[in-house]
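Journal club prep — side note

Before the paper discussion, L.F. wants everyone to see what a predicted structure for a comparable chain looks like in token form. Sequence:
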Amino acid sequence: MESELENKFEKVLKVMSNQFGNDLDLQALLFLIGVQELGKGKITLSKNEKVDVMHIATCTLLAPYGYYEFEGLDKDGWPHWKVSEKLPPLKPAQQQDIMKQAIVDYFESNELLK
């Protein structure tokens, strides 16, 4: 199962790296997903807003697993989430595997992988 996940995740990285012309990693994918979900188009973000964008991605990715629930948009159009189930204590490698699986699921459900 792990090799299947790794193969699919590598495919996501390849597709996105080809589109953006860089070697991307998990953090870069989180940022890109967050920007996509924010839906603001081309904007300039502060360092704190970049962290917020990555949080948007994390919440979006983990919502289908029941960990977050979308609450709505604020007056500036930024999405807000609430914790619906606390994540269990995980080792760093386990956290990374969950995020990789969530990213693969996101790309597959949005038909971004062919």
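L.F.'s comment for the group: The chain is about 60% helix and 10% strand. Keep this in mind when we get to the figures.
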